[in-house]
Amino acid sequence: MIEVLFQHIQEKVLLSDLDKEAIKAFFISKKLRKRQYLLQEGDVCKHLTFIAKGLLRTYNVDDKGDEHMSVFGWEGWWLSDFNSFLSGEPAVFNIDAIEDSELLLISRENYEALTLAVPIMDRYFRILYQNSIVTKERRLMSSITHSAEEKYVKLAESNPKMIERVPQNLIASYLGIAPETLSRIKKNLALRK
Which of 35, 57, 101, 147 gives a 20 to 30 Å CA spacing to 95? Predict the structure, then answer.
């Protein structure tokens, strides 16, 4: 599992062999079965999670019991309720597995210690946070400026892996549309081809 993490890190920054040896000590591994929770709303998020294998989702549930998808993550992605992780406040998100998954977890204390012990990791995480902010800004703009069909087309073009792996009802929730609307959109797109 750790090799997947090293590969991901080295896409952003260069690691030495000494860096790799040091990094190993800060993570614990965890396996989740399909539908098993990593985090439940109301609990404190105690780890940043790197996905070495599998597919997870981050979502919240409204007062009516409807789920609202926030993020999907697969191999090479990091997930957490970041506010809860940093502040120690109760999480507002649930995180569970859509597929059987293999994870690497790092606690807040180990995260802080890692960035001090291996300074290049501070740069690595900064790059991730910058990319995350840009992605969230684009998603927000898309949600308020594009039609349901445009949102789906843009998602399918920019993230075909998500379309292939994530169930249609969860994609509909992620886009903020009803599953029936997504079915109509896909049918209309297929007819135009």
Answer: 147
